[in-house]
Amino acid sequence: MAHSLSEGYGTMPLKVKEPGGEWRIVVRAADTARSSKGTYGSAPPLLAARQHGKGRVVVFPTHTTYWINAGHHRIWEQICMEKGDGAKLLDNIYRWLAEPSLASGAGRAPECTMAAT
């Protein structure tokens, strides 16, 4: 569903060069979505993850306005962070990225809670 404020805008789909390789597609767009330059005819990948050396990498090429800078701003109607599962997605990303460091004893995971609105 297009939002009136973001109509005509989108995200950059990932171009995974090694399908079936080390990259794991975690989030795809809907089957009806396509990339504007025709890289993907449907369901373009939006978030990918992989192990790299002793750590991990996540690629999520979306605009930070929706997720970090103003994810709870009223103009966006809290679509990503409250009405969707954006807060849970970000929490899962950060926890997954931190696991190798935490397992090595490099720190501890802070308790994250969302304040009730």
Principal-axes geometry comes out as flat
Mean pLDDT reading = 74
Low-confidence stretches: 1-9
Proportion in β-strands: 15-25%
The SS-based structural class is alpha+beta
For the largest sheet, list the strands in their spatial order: 1-2-3
Helical fraction equals 10-25%
The profile of the biggest β sheet is: 3 strands, antiparallel
How far do the termini sit from each other? 25 Å
Pattern of helices and strands: EEEHHH
User: What's the tally of helices?
Assistant: 3
C-alpha-based Rg, rounded: 16 Å
If you had to describe this structure to a student in words, what would you say it looks like?
The protein is an alpha+beta fold. The protein has a domain at 24-103. Helices cover 25% and strands 15% of the residues. It has 3 helices and 3 strands, in the order βββααα. It has helices spanning 64-69, 79-83, 86-103; strands spanning 24-28, 45-52, 55-59. The protein has a 3-stranded antiparallel β-sheet with strand order 1-2-3, covered by helices on one side. A hairpin with a 2-residue loop joins strand 2 (45-52) and strand 3. It is flat. Mean pLDDT is 74; it is low at 1-9.
List the helices and strands and how they pair.
Elements: E1 24-28, E2 45-52, E3 55-59, H1 64-69, H2 79-83, H3 86-103
Antiparallel strand pairs: 1-2, 2-3
Summarize this, please?
This protein is α+β, with helices and mostly antiparallel strands and 117 residues long.
